[in-house]
Amino acid sequence: xxxxxxxxxxxxxxxxxxxxxxxxxxxxxxxxxxxxxxxxxxxxxxxxxxxxxxxxxxxxxxxxxxxxxxxxxxxxxxxxxxxxxxxxxxxxxxxxxxxxxxxxxxxxxxxxxxxxxxxxxxxxxxxxxxxxxxxxxxxxxxxxxxxxxxxxxxxxxxxxxxxxxxxxxxxxxxxxxxxxxxxxxxxxxxxxxxxxxxxxxxxxxxxxxxxxxxxxxxxxxxxxxxxxxxxxxxxxxxxxxxxxxxxxxxxxxxxxxxxxxxxxxxxxxxxxxxxxxxxxxxxxxxxxxxxxxxxxxxxxxxxxxxxxxxxxxxxxxxxxxxxxxxxxxxxxxxxxxxxxxxxxxxxxxxxxxxxxxxxxx
Length: 361
What we know:
Blueprint: H1 2-26, H2 37-64, H3 68-79, H4 90-105, H5 110-178, H6 182-211, H7 213-250, H8 255-272, H9 278-281, H10 286-300, E1 303-308, E2 327-331, E3 340-345, E4 348-353, E5 357-359
Helix pairs in contact: 1-5, 2-5, 2-6, 4-5, 5-6, 5-7
C-alpha cells in the first residue's frame, strides 16, 4: 500500500510538471524542443492519411448502403458480434413485385410476360449488387477500417508518449536553468540526460511506426484496384442483363403502342375542328391500310420492299437485326406467325416484326 501511494504521488508530480511546462510554452514563457523536420513530415503524412481514409471510407459506406437506418443497424450488429438479418435489396424487391404482378395479369399476355421478364432481370441485378457490396466490404472497407482502428491508434498512442517525453525533457531543462547550488545542478543535469535518452528512444519508435505509412499506401492502392475491379464487374453484369432484357422485350408485338398513338392522333384531329363530323371527315386509319398490305403480301406469296421504321436488335440467330430507314425485301413463309415476316438484306435473312416495317409501293 505504501508503494502504491508513492507511485501515485510520483505520477501526480509528473503530470503537474507536464501541465506547467505545457502552459508556460503556450504563454511563451518556456522554451520548446522542436522535432526534426523529417519526423514532422512523417507526422503530417500520417494525419493526412487518417483524414482522407476516414472520408473515403464513410462515403463508400454511403454508396454501398444509402439508407442511414440500415447502416446504424448493421453497425450495432457488428459491435454485438451478431449476424444482421438478411433482407432483399431494392432491385430484388422491385423484381419480386414485377413477377407477382406478371403472374396476376397472366404470363400468357404480352404485358404479363414482359413484367415477369423485367422482374427476373431486376432480381439478377439485385444479386449482382449484393455480391458487389460484399466484395467491396471485404476487400476495400475492411482494410481501411483496420488501419484506422489498429495501425493509426498505435501511432497516436506512441505520438502521445513522444509528446509527454518532450514535455519531461523541457521541464528538466527548465529546472536545470533554475538550479543554483552545485548539488542541485548536478542532479538536474542527470535528470536532463535521462529525459533526453527517453525522448530520443521514443522518437525512434515513433519514426519507425510513421515510416510504415508508405506500406499502408501501397496496401490501400491494392485495395483500390480490387474495388475498381468489383465495380467494373458489377456494372458489366448490369449492362449485359439489360441488353438481354431489351432484346427480349423488342421481340414482343407493339400493336398496343401503335393503337395508342393512333388513338391519340385521331383525338387530336377530332378536337381540332369540333364542327366537322369525325365519321365523314377522317380518312381510313393508316394502321388498317398497313394491316391490309401485309395481308395481301401473305396471300400473294410474293415479295415486297419495306422501309424500317425503328432500330431492332435480333433476339437470336433466326431473326434479322434492323436499322431505321433502311430498305429490305420481305416475304411470308407458310405457317409463320402473322406478326412476323421473313426479311432479306443482301445475303442476310431472318424473321422481322411487321410493326417495325412500312411496305413500299
